[in-house]
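idk why but the lab printer keeps eating my pages so im just putting this in chat instead. protein + adenosine-5'-triphosphate:
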Amino acid sequence: MIRRLIGKLLKRHAGETSVVRRHATRYRGSDLGIHRAELSAAAQRTCETLKKGGFHAWIVGGGVRDLLLGLRPKDFDVATDATPQQVNKLFRRSRLIGRRFQIVHVMYGREVIEVSTYRALATNSQTDEQGRVLHDNEWGTQEEDAARRDFTINALYYDPIADALLDYHDGVRDLKARVLRMIGDPAARYREDPVRMLRVARFAAKLGCTIEPRTRSPIAELAPLLRGVPASRLFDEMVKLLLCGRALDALHELRSEGLHHGLLPLLDVILEQPAGERFITAALAATDARVADGRPISPGFLFATLLWQQVLVRWQERVAAGEHSIPALMTAIDAALDEQADQLAIQKRIVSDMREIWALQPRLERRVGQAPYRLLEHQRFRAAYDFLLLRSEVGEIDPELGQWWTDFIAADSAGRSDLMAAAPKASSGARAKGRSSRRRRRGPRGGDASGSAPAASS
Ligand code: ATP
Ligand code: MG
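predcted complex ->
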């Protein structure tokens, strides 16, 4: 029935080319298989309060899209005709955020509902010489708000109280066909906001969508526009991409669109260094598995894996030049982070987690005295140990070390003493397989067991 209905409605819209449509297709949510009870209590309460206050309240974006696909939404966003100040007044636990466009965060315990006022079309707004939108703080109608969203499948509005779903751009049709289609003229939309090109890769991978040809074709030419995007925004979008649950697919999508090249050194590293590829593949597969299980992901851990090859290569060079392992590692870390910083601004908090995870790697090799016991108490021990296991999994270090720690963590105090007694005295972790440890100890302070050289690159 729904299909017939859609067919009829499609015919009605045939020939309409204007981006802002006056009429949306109206469905009953329940006819499309979505129900109010599938929303979080917080999302329902937010809509109720807004409507009681005399305003519109529509769940929009990923929340509606994912429900229609039978996926568990990550979070819920609400669109309304109330101004941010009006929203703020209605909810005791809410705050205004954002500079470019003010939105309101309504807090319920740990859950945050993002409420945004309908926005006007970008054509009214200030742009730079490439067409990038600089200010778009004008409020608009719901139709305009729909037209300025990125993809048809992201422009569906669901009112849980009225059981109504509004579709201005045939998003329901595209969702059923799993097609990712940009609203309006794709090239113009990428010029307005180049980040939308990265979003193409994310949604295509996450939802298993094909990219509509008109949506895909301008990307190759416009990819360089990503250079003009502020580094902090690129970082936010990259985090979303990496945590979308299909990180590997998304990165391959980026590569096939030519979006990674020369734009983000991080991605060059990931996709173009054969030595790094296995490590990163293993890391991303682990990340995707955690997302699938609903387990938390630490961005620090994730970025530590993504940039590790950059650190490792430099670390190896310095050690080969005779520097002691630990200071060599610290210098390598600084250099890798500096190089990355210009393009993609990784948040300070995350950078400090990355540093700790890396810096703990040689310490995990010290199995003497009280060192391993002290390490167990370290705040980042777990992350550093997981990181070590990943290195072990790809053959970068001797698997004996990872296994030793696994046993050590599980053992009781007698078992731990036995493991300490049995541990190889010369550190053996970061060694390329088959390489003699004598060779590695030839640095200026080579006899010092407090840190071993990293594996030579293979
Ligand atoms: P996810 O479930 O991964 O969060 P999402 O669709 O909710 O997916 P968000 O980045 O949270 O993605 O954005 C919410 C909504 O805001 C989108 O669905 C889209 O309608 C709109 N949107 C976000 N970013 C853009 C953009 N750069 N250009 C146009 N519309 C956008
Ligand atoms: Mg979202």
